Design the sequence.
């Protein structure tokens, strides 16, 4: 779910280092206007019909580490097959899969990977050159057939071909510790 902080209140939250922590949120407005949904290059960040709007009365309470330990570090990732069979609105998604093949694209600024998820479905991922696509780790992940997690990718279809494409805000985690990656390891080694 997206939380929107009005520009007049950004200073209140900017320096608090809230990313990656778990909070209870109280006294907020819930809005279902799609125009309020943050977008990136025409893609929505979430596939949800509601947005939390922060106001002067909103309070964020940091939850204890004991509670935080019951939640995954990464958001849940749907199976790739589900994405293909159920086309959605233009949303940025996160994907996790085992690298099973690769090739350098003709312009040398991207790598074309084939990812296999826990359902066995395989899809092409175009991983554009970016700060998180560390060349040495990427090379090792290709050679070692590592599992990778990539956030904020675009699901695209062109000429009957379905594929995923990273964006400039995509982040890559190599051999992530998460339930989906563990399931892939258990199935494919």
Sequence:
């Amino acid at each position: 779910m997206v939380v929107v902080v009005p520009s007049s209140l950004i200073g209140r939250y900017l320096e608090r280092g809230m990313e990656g922590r778990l909070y209870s949120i109280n006294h907020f407005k819930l809005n279902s206007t799609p125009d309020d949904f943050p977008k990136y290059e025409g893609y929505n960040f979430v596939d949800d019909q509601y947005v939390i709007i922060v106001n002067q009365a909103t309070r964020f309470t940091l939850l204890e580490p004991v509670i935080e330990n019951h939640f995954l570090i990464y958001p849940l990732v749907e199976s790739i097959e589900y994405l293909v069979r159920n086309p959605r609105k233009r949303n940025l998604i996160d994907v996790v899969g085992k690298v099973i093949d690769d090739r350098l694209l003709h312009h040398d600024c991207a790598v074309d990977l084939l990812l296999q998820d826990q359902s066995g479905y395989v899809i092409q991922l175009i991983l554009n050159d970016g700060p998180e696509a560390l060349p040495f780790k990427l090379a090792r992940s290709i050679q070692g057939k590592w599992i990778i997690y990539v956030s904020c990718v675009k699901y695209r279809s062109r000429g009957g071909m379905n594929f995923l494409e990273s964006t400039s805000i995509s982040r890559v985690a190599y051999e992530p510790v998460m339930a989906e990656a563990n399931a892939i390891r258990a199935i494919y080694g």
